[in-house]
């Protein structure tokens, strides 16, 4: 009587294992080729300036005095909010003080949108 080993030795086919490995290799190669072709196409579609732009090296550009610059920016924005002036004189577009703009909005309501 022949004794069987405690584990199954005949359940994995060498041919199936080789087929799976070759299939995986073929899939990886085809995917890599497809990605390469797409990248080559995209490279041709982009202007050359994208690839010729030099990369800046050196330390990062930081603000010398961030607190002072923030104060100046806030003051300029506040002055813009509380003043009147032309944005585009030819198109008759103005900016108004924020209080006046809110009052006009309450009086007139939101403008009607033009449908094309």
Architecture overview:
The chain crosses the membrane at residues 16-39. Keywords: Membrane, Transmembrane, Transmembrane helix. With 116 residues, the chain is mainly alpha-helical. Among the domains are: 14-52; 67-108, no CATH class. The chain is built from 4 helices and 2 strands, in the order H-H-H-E-E-H. Strands 1-2 form a two-stranded antiparallel sheet. The longest helix has 32 residues, at 14-45. The chain is elongated and about 100 Å long. The model has no long low-confidence stretch (mean pLDDT 85).
Average pLDDT figure: 85
Number of contiguous helices: 4
Kindly report how far apart the N and C termini lie: 92 Å
SSE class: mainly alpha
Note the overall shape: elongated
Strand content: 5-15%
Into which percent range does the helicity of residues fall? 55-70%
Sequence of strands across the biggest β-sheet: 1-2
How many strands, what sense, and barrel or not for the largest sheet?
2 strands, antiparallel
Count of strand segments = 2
Gyration radius (Cα, Å) is 35 Å
Instruction: Pick out the low-confidence regions.
Output: none
Q: H/E series, N to C? A: HHHEEH
Quick recap of the structure?
The chain has 116 residues and is mainly alpha-helical. Helices cover 55% and strands 6% of the residues.
List the helices and strands and how they pair.
Elements: H1 14-45, H2 48-52, H3 66-81, E1 85-88, E2 93-95, H4 98-108
């Amino acid at each position: 009587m022949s004794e069987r080993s405690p584990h199954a030795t005949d359940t994995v086919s060498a041919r199936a294992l080789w087929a799976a490995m070759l299939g995986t290799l073929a899939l990886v190669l085809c995917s890599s080729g497809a990605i390469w072709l797409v990248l080559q196409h995209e490279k041709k579609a982009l202007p050359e300036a994208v690839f010729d732009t030099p990369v800046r090296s050196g330390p990062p550009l930081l603000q010398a005095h961030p607190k002072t610059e923030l104060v100046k920016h806030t003051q300029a924005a506040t002055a813009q909010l509380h003043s009147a002036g032309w944005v585009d004189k030819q198109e008759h577009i103005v900016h108004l003080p924020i209080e006046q703009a809110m009052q006009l909005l309450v009086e007139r309501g939101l403008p009607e949108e033009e449908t094309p």
